[in-house]
Every structure is written in structure tokens, then in C-alpha cells.
């Protein structure tokens, strides 16, 4: 295990009060695993991964829970409670990030080589040129492109450079926030193939956030589905796709038309995603749920075991009591 | 494809943008025809010329060569009559509505400008047509009070207000939340049935193109490389680029573990349109490229299933 998240809460503190964007989120990330986090805009997925590496900016703040990182060497560290100074030791070496927009994440007025050298030097690498060339080659960029400025590269190349940069100090955990959303499908496939190959070779773990569930099914080992700030289902990727336990997961899955399978009429999910300032007292998905019943408005379902997966849905209460 | 006269067509159009220092060759000899009651999807990567073609069809700027025809008549320039027939739905419903005015104002304005009755009943009827019910409530809301999907439906209602025969949708669902995209697609499909609209659906998502459309056209770097009935293009792609697009698109059915992504072929990227490769512009990335592909663009080869492609692989003569 590399990451153990326990009861994590993240609030956006506003003048009108706190809005909870991540609510009581717990999960564990295994070594070398790719965990996909999927959900619609506003479900808290990006806030969650920014909290995991403590890159939240005010008004967002962690207001509860722990994020235990288990580095290869040394004692486990609770990222949520450490000072920025203490975290600096872990950044790049233990944990790194790939952001959605490489154009914004890279420095537009510095050559790639300078940006790589910056990171490498700060972490004690001597021969930065050699390491930069090695890193670029890892993601299929010719080393002579190190002299390029970001605007001289295509969107896909910038995104791959971002991945190479994140891997600069051989991190154990890489969080990725929609790294392929801004690139075309062909480039997306190349980037994902590269992530899988590099994970195989270097053994890092990944938390990968996207709104595209169909892509995660092919990429991730396990998938967490978020809705209204909470994880509503967590399970093996193939299982999530084949036999979703939560009606929201099923609705999300059926929102992607098939590429080759016979086309049937699909309906998506009626209604709109919830307003985090004004969540229902019961299940947040209840107003849109095709299978809701009385319990759903009264009590919020806990994330509990259903078969090999976890799901937060009252539909499974009966099975559970029958077994107990 | 039907024999009737297309409602709107781009016939052999070329568009070059002159920036003073250089020329961007955005479109080369492209033909696309839209028919009554049919949806044509235009797919391709960014920079392939999809939006340029839509803008030519909408008369945003003149063609460099070729013709835009409305019901067979060459269109000489944009005027109100033209926009009474041809309407657009844009990608970003947050930018395309007047955010300071209520929904009813946004819709009523289009009715008024085109000389149609613009009373409350007419506005409400349009809103009901795009499933914004109760229409009277939605009419009084401001755009910021609506979700992205609802706003996009207002934009569609506004386009319908002029009673057009053609709707051009440039990535109309790509900025919407995943769970409400199908809602908008199903609405477009219904408008095709009920209003007999001719629809152009521009997208980079080939799976949604297949879901919605009757015909699919595939563009690459300003050239039209394949087209035909949606199922033939998806199930039996003829052009290597269409095959690449299909292979690259996410398909959960294909997933066996995570092996689908492990073939790390270096697939390259689309070329610069300032200095595009001669011949077929896909040849530098094409695994089947022959000498011929590097010098001349292939003629169209037609197939029994109604599809066609411009590819030397299918042209032995």
C-alpha cells in the first residue's frame, strides 16, 4: 500500500459558509496500481486529488481526515497534517502531479531544458542534461526538443513533456488531473499507452481523474465513482463496467454510446448534478435516481461492501441484512 | 445517399487563409451534402477543418474556390433569408446566449427578427419543443440560472425560432456534463424526425457520431478522406485514418485487463497546414503509404455499401 486516505473532508470556505466539496472520502491505493476517479463536473474529483498532494489553494482547505503516504523509505507520513516545509522533502521524489492544461503548467518563457534542470537541480541531480534527455526519450520526445519553448510544441507533445517532468525524480505516486482532456483521441491513446508502459517499467502508482468513464475502464485497475463530493462506488475496473452496483454508476456507464456494440436508445441520467451548497439529506443522487424508494430520502447510505466492490446505496441493504 | 437535391451543400470547396506572411491551407476540394431529415456527422481531430467547413456552410467567410449551394442555388453571400434557412448551434452555451437577458428575450428576438409571431405562446411552444418544461417558468429565467444542458437547449430553441431547414451543430455537446449529453443528442434526433431538419453534427467523438447520425464524414488535415452510411464507416472503415481514429477511441468492450493501450506505436501527429505534405496528407503517418500517396491525392472509390474513400489502397487503376 502506498496511500491510505481516511475520512478526508475538503471545504471551500466562503463568506456565506463552508461548502464541502470532498466529503468523508476513504480509500487505499496499492503499490503500482492505477486508480481511476470518475464523475461529473463539481463532483469533487479534482479537489480530491489536489488535496492528496496538498496543492489546494484558499478558499479550499482540508478540514478533516488523514492522507497517509507510505514511502519506500522511512515512516508513513500524514500529508494532511504536515507543514509545507515538511512536505517539500516528499514533493517530486515521492509524489508528483500532471495537470490538465500543459500550456498553463509549463513556463511559457523558459526552454524545456531549463524547466527540467530547475527541478532536477533542486533535488540533487548533477547531470541534468543527461537526465532530461533520458526523461524526454521515455515519453517519445526527441531529446533535441529540450531546447524548445512550450509554444513551439504541439499540445500532445507538451502534455507528454509534463509527464516526463513529473517523473523526473522517480516518484512513487503520480496524480493526474484529466491529463488527456485537451488532446485528440489519437494522441490520447498514445499518452495512455505510455503511462501504462512507464508504470510497468518504473512501478509508480497513479490516481487518474477524468470525466470519461469509458476511457478508465481500459486504463485503470480499480475505479472510484464520485457524486456530490463522496465516493459512491469503488471496485475493479472491469466489474464497475460489467456490473455496476450504484444506479449512478450504471447511468454514467450508459451515457457513453458504444463504439462497436449494437446501438440502442440511451437516455443518460435525467436531471442535473447536485448543488453542493444544498445537498439532499438522504442520498445525493436520490432526486435523479430511477430506483429510489423511501429510505433514500431519509438516510444517507454508507459506502459498504457489495460483493467484491464498495457501494453507497440502500438497494443493497436488504441483501446485507439477509446475509447477516 | 438519397437522390434528391441537398438542402445545403459544399461543392468542391477550398479555403485558404492568408495571414500576410503565410497561407494556411485549411480545406482542399471538400464536398459535403446535407439532406432533409438526415443527420451527417463530420469527424476528425482538431485542425482537420471541421469548423472551417461549417463556417463556410454558414457563410461566415467566403470560399477560396468551389460553391456553397442552398437547395441547388449558389449562395452569393450571407443575408437574412439565408439565415432564415440555416442556423448554428455553438459549442459553448455559456457564451452563445445573452447573459443579461431572460430566456424569453433570447428566443423572442430571433422570432421578431425573422418576422414570426413573437407572443408568449410562440416562445413557450419553442421551449416546450426542446423539453424545457414548464416553459413559462424557464422563459423567465436568466441564462446563469440554467445548467449547461438547459442552456444548450435554449440555444437550440432560438435556432428553431427562425424555422430553419438546416441546423449546423459545432461540437454541441462537448462542453456538457457526460450524463446530460445524450439528452441533447436525443433532442437533435427528434428534431430530425419531427421537423425534417437537415443536420450537421460536428464532433471529435466518433462513438457519438455513430449514435446520432445517418452518415459519417471523416476529415484529415483539410481533406475529406471517407464518408458513407454510419454503420459502414464504423464497422468497415476503408481509409487507414478512419481505422486509426476507431482504434484510438475508448471502447470498454475491448478492454481485457489493460492490454488495449500497451501497443505503443509512434503514431505521429497531424501536419502543419501552412506546409502540408503533398498528395494524401495522411501519408507520413500511414503504415500502408506507397510512392503514389506522396505525390497525388487519390480519386474517390465507391463501394457497394454506399460508402466511399479517397485512398490509393482502394484504387488499383
Automatic annotation (TrEMBL), chain A:
CDD domains, per database record: ABC_NikE_OppD_transporters (cd03257)
Domain (ABC transporter) ranges: 5-253
GO MF term list: ATP binding; ATP hydrolysis activity
Annotated keywords: ATP-binding, Nucleotide-binding, Transport
InterPro entries: AAA+_ATPase (IPR003593), ABC_transporter-like_ATP-bd (IPR003439), ABC_transporter-like_CS (IPR017871), Oligopep_ABC_C (IPR013563), P-loop_NTPase (IPR027417)
Record's signal peptide: none
Pfam families: ABC_tran (PF00005), oligo_HPY (PF08352)
UniProt record, GO biological process: peptide transport
Similarity-based family: Belongs to the ABC transporter superfamily.
Record's protein name: Peptide/nickel transport system ATP-binding protein
Protein species of origin: Streptosporangium canum
Lineage, highest ranks first: Bacteria, Bacillati, Actinomycetota, Actinomycetes, Streptosporangiales
UniProtKB/TrEMBL annotation, chain B:
Domain of life: Bacteria
PANTHER family documented for this protein: ABC-TYPE DIPEPTIDE/OLIGOPEPTIDE TRANSPORT SYSTEM, ATPASE COMPONENT (PTHR43230), ABC-TYPE DIPEPTIDE_OLIGOPEPTIDE TRANSPORT SYSTEM, ATPASE COMPONENT (PTHR43230:SF3)
Residue ranges of every copy of the ABC transporter domain listed in the record: 8-246
Gene3D superfamilies: P-loop containing nucleotide triphosphate hydrolases (3.40.50.300)
Keywords, alphabetical: ATP-binding, Nucleotide-binding, Transport
NCBIfam families assigned to the protein according to its UniProt record, in alphabetical order: oligo_HPY
Pfam name, any one: oligo_HPY
The keyword Transport is annotated on this UniProt entry: yes
Name of the protein: Peptide/nickel transport system ATP-binding protein
Species of origin: Streptosporangium canum
Alphabetized GO MF terms: ATP binding; ATP hydrolysis activity
GO biological process: peptide transport
Amino acid at each position: 500500500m502506498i496511500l491510505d486516505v481516511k475520512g478526508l473532508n475538503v471545504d471551500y470556505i466562503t463568506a456565506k459558509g463552508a461548502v464541502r466539496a470532498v466529503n468523508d472520502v476513504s480509500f487505499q491505493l496499492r503499490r503500482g496500481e492505477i486508480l481511476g476517479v470518475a464523475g461529473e463536473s463539481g463532483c469533487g474529483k479534482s479537489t480530491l486529488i489536489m488535496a492528496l498532494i496538498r496543492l489546494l489553494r484558499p478558499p479550499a482547505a482540508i478540514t478533516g481526515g488523514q492522507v497517509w503516504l507510505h514511502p519506500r523509505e522511512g515512516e508513513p507520513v500524514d500529508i494532511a497534517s504536515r507543514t509545507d516545509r515538511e512536505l517539500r522533502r516528499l514533493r517530486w521524489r515521492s509524489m508528483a502531479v500532471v495537470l490538465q492544461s500543459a500550456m498553463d503548467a509549463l513556463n511559457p518563457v523558459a526552454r524545456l531544458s531549463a524547466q527540467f534542470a530547475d527541478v532536477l537541480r533542486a533535488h540533487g541531480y548533477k547531470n541534468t542534461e543527461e537526465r532530461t534527455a533520458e526523461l524526454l526519450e521515455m515519453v517519445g520526445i526527441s531529446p533535441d526538443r529540450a531546447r524548445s519553448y512550450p509554444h513551439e510544441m504541439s499540445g500532445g507533445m507538451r502534455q507528454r513533456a509534463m509527464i516526463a517532468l513529473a517523473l523526473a525524480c522517480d516518484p512513487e505516486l503520480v496524480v493526474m488531473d484529466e491529463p488527456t482532456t485537451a488532446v485528440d483521441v489519437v494522441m490520447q491513446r498514445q499518452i495512455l499507452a505510455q503511462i501504462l508502459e512507464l508504470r510497468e517499467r518504473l512501478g509508480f502508482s497513479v490516481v487518474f481523474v477524468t470525466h470519461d468513464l469509458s476511457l478508465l475502464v481500459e486504463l485503470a485497475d480499480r475505479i472510484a465513482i464520485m457524486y456530490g463530493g463522496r465516493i459512491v462506488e469503488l471496485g475493479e475496473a472491469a466489474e464497475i463496467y460489467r456490473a455496476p452496483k450504484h444506479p449512478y454508476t450504471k447511468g454514467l456507464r450508459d451515457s457513453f454510446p458504444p463504439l462497436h456494440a449494437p446501438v440502442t436508445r440511451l437516455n443518460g441520467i435525467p436531471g442535473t448534478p447536485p448543488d453542493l451548497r444544498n445537498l439532499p439529506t438522504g442520498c445525493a443522487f436520490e432526486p435523479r435516481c430511477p430506483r429510489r424508494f423511501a429510505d433514500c430520502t431519509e438516510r444517507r447510505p454508507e459506502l459498504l461492501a457489495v460483493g467484491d466492490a464498495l457501494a453507497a446505496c440502500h438497494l443493497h441493504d436488504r441483501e446485507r441484512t439477509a446475509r447477516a | 445517399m438519397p437522390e434528391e437535391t441537398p438542402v445545403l451543400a459544399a461543392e468542391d470547396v477550398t479555403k485558404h487563409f492568408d495571414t500576410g506572411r503565410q497561407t494556411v491551407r485549411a480545406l482542399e476540394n471538400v464536398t459535403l451534402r446535407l439532406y432533409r431529415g438526415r443527420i451527417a456527422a463530420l469527424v476528425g481531430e482538431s485542425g482537420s477543418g471541421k469548423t472551417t467547413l461549417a463556417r463556410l456552410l454558414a457563410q461566415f467567410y467566403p470560399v477560396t474556390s468551389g460553391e456553397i449551394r442552398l437547395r441547388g442555388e449558389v449562395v452569393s453571400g450571407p443575408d437574412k433569408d439565408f439565415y432564415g434557412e440555416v442556423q448554428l448551434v455553438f459549442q459553448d452555451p455559456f457564451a452563445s446566449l445573452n447573459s443579461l437577458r431572460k430566456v424569453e428575450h433570447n428566443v423572442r428576438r430571433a422570432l421578431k427578427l425573422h418576422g414570426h409571431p413573437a407572443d408568449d405562446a410562440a416562445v413557450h411552444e419553442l421551449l416546450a419543443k426542446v423539453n424545457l418544461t414548464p416553459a413559462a417558468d424557464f422563459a423567465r429565467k436568466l441564462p446563469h440560472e440554467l445548467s449547461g444542458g438547459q442552456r444548450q437547449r435554449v440555444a437550440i430553441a432560438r435556432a428553431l425560432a427562425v424555422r430553419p431547414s438546416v441546423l449546423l451543430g459545432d461540437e454541441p455537446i462537448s462542453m456538457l456534463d457526460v450524463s446530460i449529453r445524450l439528452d441533447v443528442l436525443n433532442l437533435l434526433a427528434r428534431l430530425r424526425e419531427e421537423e425534417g431538419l437537415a443536420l450537421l453534427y460536428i464532433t471529435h467523438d466518433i462513438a457519438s457520431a455513430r449514435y446520432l447520425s445517418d452518415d459519417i464524414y471523416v476529415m484529415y488535415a483539410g481533406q475529406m478522406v471517407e464518408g458513407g452510411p454510419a454503420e459502414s464507416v464504423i464497422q468497415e472503415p476503408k481509409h487507414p485514418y478512419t481505422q486509426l481514429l476507431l482504434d484510438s477511441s475508448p471502447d470498454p468492450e475491448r478492454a481485457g485487463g489493460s492490454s488495449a493501450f500497451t501497443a505503443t506505436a509512434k503514431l505521429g501527429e497531424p501536419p502543419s497546414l501552412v506546409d502540408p505534405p503533398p498528395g494524401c496528407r495522411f501519408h507520413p503517418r500511414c503504415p500502408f503509404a506507397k510512392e503514389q500517396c506522396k505525390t497525388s491525392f487519390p480519386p474517390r472509390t465507391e463501394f457497394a455499401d454506399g460508402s466511399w474513400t479517397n485512398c490509393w489502397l482502394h484504387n488499383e487503376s
